[in-house]
């Protein structure tokens, strides 16, 4: 019996020794290749991997800093280094490539509409009186055929000269055509010159104060166009969004009535041959403090509206009264409030936020 116990102790000692000499096998839960070796070997491997990871991260950080410094040395194009601006331009070409007038933004039930926050005060200068407002329209194909034609679209508002201001209210949808004020406004030589460099980027005539022929429209003229209502999502580039119910006239109906010129000299046909038209529409506030540009395809999109009502009520001044743009296929920076001028042009219009580093196209 003592020999048997001695034999068992020898076997146990041998198994224990074998266990101590056996390699350590480490497993993970992701079924990656197992690491086989002693504790010392595993520790050495881990130290090597840590050094390698540190070197890789260090090289990556140095490359990032070097790339950023390189970007800062590039010439600026509209407040952005040229390389970043080219990235914006690539995004714009991509967005234009899949843009279709049949691609509509989602619509919602009217009861889902809410009051949007008041955001952005550029172009909403103090002292504005909607009762004196007129919409200037320039770049029309044959402006003289319209009763609203004037030799100079500049006009004096109540803040300029109360005795010379138009006296019909902005909300004059019930006006009769015969009551419409189509008389030429006072000579603007004593008023501040209209500077449309913000609208088409290259209009020395307006900058010099030379009279510009065009149309002066009232809100009644806009309300005579077919009324359209839609409940869509207003998306801000800051990241928030809200569903709003809008009412107004399609910009395409506006263009079909007050026709832009064509690039080939043919008679304009907004419905059948929109590709013949000049390529852009510029819009700006009466004080020229805010301005946006649209490509013609976006302007003629069926959901691009000249709005005068929001959630069943006339626009308030804070939300762009008497007339604002709504285009739910683009971010809110394009939804210019208090439109004072619309320009049809073949020159790409300046855009307030594009000049400050944002995407000119601003589609989503």
Order of helices and strands: HEEHEEHEEHHEHEEHEEHEEEE
Radius of gyration: 33 Å
How many helices? The count is: 8
Estimated helix fraction: 25-40%
Structural class call reads: alpha+beta
> Any low-confidence stretches, pLDDT <50, length ≥5?
161-205
* Largest beta-sheet details: 6 strands, mixed
* Spatial shape: elongated
Mean pLDDT equals: 79
Strand content: 15-25%
Distance between the termini: 89 Å
What's the number of extended β-strand segments? 15
Largest sheet: spatial strand order: 6-7-5-15-10-11
Q: How does this model look, in words?
A:
- This protein is α+β, with helices and mostly antiparallel strands.
- It is 26% helix and 18% strand.
- The protein contains 8 helices and 15 strands.
- The strands form 4 sheets. Strands 6-7-5-15-10-11 form a 6-stranded mixed beta sheet. Strands 8, 9, 12, 13 and 14 form a 5-stranded antiparallel beta sheet that branches. It has a two-stranded antiparallel sheet with strand order 1-2.
- Strand 12 (305-310) and strand 13 form a beta hairpin.
- The longest helix has 35 residues, at 39-73.
- Residues 161-205 have low confidence and may be disordered.
């Amino acid at each position: 019996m003592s020999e048997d116990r001695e034999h068992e102790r020898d076997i146990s000692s041998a198994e224990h020794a074998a266990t101590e000499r056996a390699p350590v096998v480490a497993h993970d839960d992701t079924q990656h290749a197992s690491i086989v070796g002693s504790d010392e070997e595993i520790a050495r491997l881990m130290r090597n991997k840590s050094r390698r990871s540190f070197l890789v991260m260090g090289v990556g950080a140095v490359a990032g800093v070097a790339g950023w410094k390189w970007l800062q040395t590039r010439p600026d194009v509209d407040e952005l280094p040229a390389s970043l601006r080219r990235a914006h331009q690539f995004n714009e070409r991509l967005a234009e490539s899949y843009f279709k007038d049949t691609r509509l933004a989602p619509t919602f039930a009217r009861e889902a509409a809410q009051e949007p926050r008041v955001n952005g005060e550029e172009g909403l200068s103090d002292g504005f009186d909607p009762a004196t407002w007129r919409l200037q329209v320039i770049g029309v194909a044959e402006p003289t055929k319209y009763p609203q034609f004037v030799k100079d679209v500049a006009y004096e508002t109540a803040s300029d000269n109360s005795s010379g201001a138009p006296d019909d209210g902005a909300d004059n949808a019930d006006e009769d055509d015969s009551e419409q004020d189509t008389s030429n406004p006072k000579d603007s030589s004593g008023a501040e010159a209209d500077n449309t460099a913000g609208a088409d980027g290259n209009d020395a005539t307006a900058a010099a104060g030379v009279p510009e022929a065009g149309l002066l429209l009232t809100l009644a003229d806009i309300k005579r166009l077919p009324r359209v209502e839609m409940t869509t999502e207003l998306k801000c580039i800051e990241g928030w969004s809200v569903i709003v119910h809008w009412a107004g006239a399609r910009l395409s109906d506006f263009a079909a009535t007050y026709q832009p010129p064509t690039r080939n000299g043919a008679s304009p046909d907004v419905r059948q041959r929109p590709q013949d038209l000049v390529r852009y529409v510029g819009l700006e506030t009466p004080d020229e403090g805010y301005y946006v540009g649209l490509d013609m395809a976006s302007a003629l999109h069926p959901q691009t509206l000249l709005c005068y009502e929001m959630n069943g009520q006339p626009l308030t001044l804070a939300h762009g009264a008497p007339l604002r743009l709504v285009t739910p296929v683009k971010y809110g920076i394009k939804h210019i409030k208090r439109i004072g001028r619309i320009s049809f042009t073949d020159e790409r219009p300046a855009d307030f936020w594009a000049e400050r580093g944002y995407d000119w196209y601003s589609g989503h």
